Amino acid sequence: KYKIFFNPPTIDDIVIPQTPLAGLVLMPSMKLSNINFEDVEFRWEIRSADSVNWSTHSKLRLLRIDEILVDQYIRLKCTSKGLDPAYSSEIGPVVNDESIYTLLKKINSGCRFKLESNDI
Q: Which residue among 11, 52, 65, 71 has the highest number of C-beta atoms inside a 10 angstrom radius?
């Protein structure tokens, strides 16, 4: 007789930084079991304080928090073919600290590397 052990693929423990400041870039961490990182689909979702409905804002792995997201709540939804979606906890509302945002813009503009959608 043979025993078959099956470990289904899972996406667990999605964590995003808890500092929702305009100008920052959020990079998630997560635990994957029996699945390749390349097979994970990312979907950054946002909602306003007076809404219960989430809408897709970006499908990139990283999220740069722009001024557009000020006062919004953010969460990350991860999926892969055949899996139920996994969610991070929500953060927010996003705040815009002018001094930090200005500093981050100067730092980002002075870097030789600029984050583009095709870099991810």
A: 65
The closest of 115, 114, 92, 102 to 23, measured between CA atoms, is 102
* Nearest one of 84, 91, 120 to 11, comparing CA atoms: 84
pLDDT tens readout for residues 29-72: 999 998 888 999 999 999 999 999 999 999 999 998 888 999 99
Residue 65 and residue 14: Cα distance in Å, rounded? 18
In DSSP terms, 41 is beta-bridged to: 79
Task: Give the bridge partners for 35, in sequence order.
Answer: none
Dist CA 21 CA 36 (whole Å): 31
* Side chain identity, residue 63: L
Element (H, E) at 106: helix 98-110
Strand order across the 41-48 sheet: 55-58, 41-48, 72-79, 86-87
**CB contact set of 55 (below 8 Å; sequence gap of 6+):** 45, 46, 47
CB 104 within 8 A of CB 23: yes
